[in-house]
Amino acid sequence: MATNHEPDVPANHNEDRRTFLKQSSLLTALALVPGPVVSAAEAKLDERVAEAIEQVPLSLKVNGKKLKLKVEPRTTLLDLLRENLHLTGTKKGCDYGQCGACTVHVDGQRVNSCLSFAVMHDGQEITTIEGLADGDKLHPMQEAFVKHDGFQCGYCTPGQIMSAVACVREGHAGSEEEIREYMSGNICRCGAYPNIVAAIQDVKQGGQKV
Amino acid sequence: MNAPEKKIGAPMNRVDGRQKVTGAAKYAAEYDLPNMAYAVLVGSTIAKGRLSSIDTKAAERAPGVLAVITHLNAPKAPGAKPAGKDPSQPQTVGSALQVFLDDNIRFNDQPIAVVVADTLERARFAARLVKAQYAPEKHQTNLEANKANAFLPTQAKKNPKSGAADYQRGQVDAYKTGALKLEAEYVIPTEVHHPMELQAITAHWEAPDRLTLYDKTQGTMATRRDFARQWGLPEANVKVIATYVGGAFGNALHSWPHESAAIIAAKVVNRPVKLMLTREQMFTMVGYRPYTWQKIGMSATADGKITAITHESIGQTSTYEEFVEATLGQTKMMYESPNLTTRYRLAALDVGSPIWMRGPGEATGAFALESAMDEMAFLLNLDPLEFRLRNYTNQDPEKNRPWSSKFLKECYQAGAERVGWNKRQLKPGALRDGEWLIGYGMGVGTFGAHRGSSKASAQLLPNGTVLLQSAVTDIGPGTGTAMTQIAADTLGLAPGRIRFEWGNSDFAQAPTQGGSAIVNTVGPAVQEACLALKDKLRELAAGGNSAFASAKKEDVVLADTHLTLTGNPTARAPYTDLVKQAGGTAVTVESKPSGEGQKVSMYSFSVHFAEVRVHELTGEVRVSKLISCADAGTIINEKTAGNQMKGGAVGGIGMALMEHAIIDDRFGRYVTKDLADYHVPVHADSPAVEVFFVNKPDPYVNQLGTKGIGEIATIGVAPAIANAVFNATGKRVRELPITPDKLV
Ligand code: FES
Ligand code: FES
Known about the structure:
With about 210 residues, chain A is α+β, with helices and mostly antiparallel strands. Chain A has helices at about 15-25, 25-30, 35-55, 75-85, 140-145, 155-170, 175-180, 195-205; strands at about 5, 55-60, 65-70, 105, 110, 125. The radius of gyration of chain A is 23 Å and the shape is elongated. Chain B contains 17 helices and 33 strands. In chain B, strands 3-6-1-13-10-11-12 form a seven-stranded mixed sheet. Bound molecules: FE2/S2 (inorganic) cluster (FES) (2 copies).
């Protein structure tokens, strides 16, 4: 017996809107045109419809640079950074807000960029790992991660460092225990935790400005 | 000129540290190619049966969609074979699995379509519009229910000397007649590697017969071989780049369905295609540590000498590949036992294939063996460390030959001192701090010190830098850094003058990173390439300066701008002249193991000591101390090696206390789908692991004296924690993970 096991597809407003537009307007006019031409036209139309209703203007300041962008509302801040702005230092480790690999600073606060839509940040200031160093001079937290070998594969590292800087700024790096607690949103599957904690303590105790 | 300080052994910072802390390091999905397209997989929602129909129309019509590929329209790669259709002829793990070849469903979430679009959002949206109908068949996803169908692996049937074959010394199952005996069953659930980088690939057909892959793989050459075969291309036409690999722990030791899918997709749309799995897909199609049932029978004399061990195991595999690992290896050689029996079996289930996960089978086996050792010590009323010392092996009891080196006793002593073993009480539950019960446990690990053959190339650049290249990957241990240190010492140069490049299949041949064998194997090749380069430079210099002609290569000195000789500073050959000579300075050498190692047994050893605190009322377990001690031969870089040990220990905490992938057998589908369901250790779970290295060279493995660290860092950690929990609470947990429900 054949059964249907497809997963639930929630009603999608975009799709509905697009279908409606297509059916009600231009497609009727094109109805008499031969098949292949219709589909080509349909595709073009789709593009235009998508362009018109799917792209939203957005102003951001990323690593000190002012940007005027157009993005789809469903684009996450993480995908905007990685795929559109090619700032791939911010990592995708889960896309569900569970690993911290995508941590960036939004107006100085640490945020999981995968859990936040880009359009929610209009007018805000984003700092990614690429914007942390002062030109060639590494940020003290970056220096400390190198010195204490606070990473192995390096994939969680940008997130750990962005979180670590925030952790110190928030005043949550008072003890090893406190650091562990306030860094627990950043998973390191390589298990470099002891060295990450040592790096953060070093920066905190060194009293450098972060 | 003063020779620079020796770099081997020094705690040097990583050569790629700056890249990693600035976000400049590029991983597989981070190459920006022109006209990039994005692919998203659609997975089956049944575990077994056939795809009776698939409707892709809506997806095809969605905006931005470039192609929807299924078995109905996929181009067939000339070398692609359907996965093990005939169950009597299963493939052994290691060859690429092709997708979209037929309508067979072999596991839940098996890719049935790939949607390609011009943006990730559009591809993801359209993928949800693909509708499939199935003709399901009854599936089996539960190992416990399938133990009766377990079978001897084909490789063991074909070769009785295979490690997977039944092993016997002395009497069969002699423990049964022992006066003092125990019999216990142990279970390790399915665990998933979950490296932080999701599996990803960027596939680019640069010409109809030239393929470039930016891929998450542990072996650039193995991946090249697999896909060259699949597409019927000469290997030289396929290039695999894996400069940075965001962790893998074994799951990139195999070519997986998503890689095939991305390559097909790139072919169809004739654009570079990027495909990154979701965390949910990481459970289903890129391997895992297989659910394994084990049983140990052990007998001993009253004075603590083991008389017999029987160790049996049944591990899970898929219906289309036989995945075999060395679960019973440690039992055969770790302790003196005149009678020893092992039986290794597999049970094939309707799941994706497993793949080696850090410490692989040895870590699974060590959980059972080292727990049983603790149980027996308790029966004997003996300190578990003392019990292990009474059964210490001074030579390999499996192969009856000497160890190449073994300093495990030194490790025992160092670890016991550091953890405060003297505080440990024989009687469980005797130590407490308020509501927290305190316990101590130990677990031993071992792994073969493997060394294969490898090439390395070296050349001098006009500015006096030496460029070394190897196809090897660095998935996190710091391979690039260790190789730089080896080269620096061999050439007498500061590390800043060495540039070691890795992770490209076009570079000198090197093995896949895995099995703790990379420094053992590639290290000697790098060293020999450096020596060959010195000799080559001497030869080139000899043309213009006779002093070099008669010089020995040991006397060749690479000064800042020119070649010279020890004791003869007037001999000068400027680099700018040397590099101009016909043929250039490049040398490539191959380094192979000498036959010497055949006479001895070569293993790395470790012991882990844990102090745990268990909350009396809630059953919460905290690992308060973890000391990992290793006899891994020469340590090339104390800092990175120490980090690797700590990471392995943290992995062991996960294994012991939280990692557990669960399938709902009614649907044959994982119910753990992300990192909120499948727990891995976080900062708060991890103590400041302390590491001790014996750091004595092994005389046999290679000229560097290394033995390998990656696996022994994890093997033995989980039982150390389980044993400590027993010591704290008197509760013996034989089924991992040790979650609070098992303690209250
Ligand atoms: S990718 Fe954002 S938390 Fe994991
Ligand atoms: S360094 Fe690999 S995950 Fe943290």
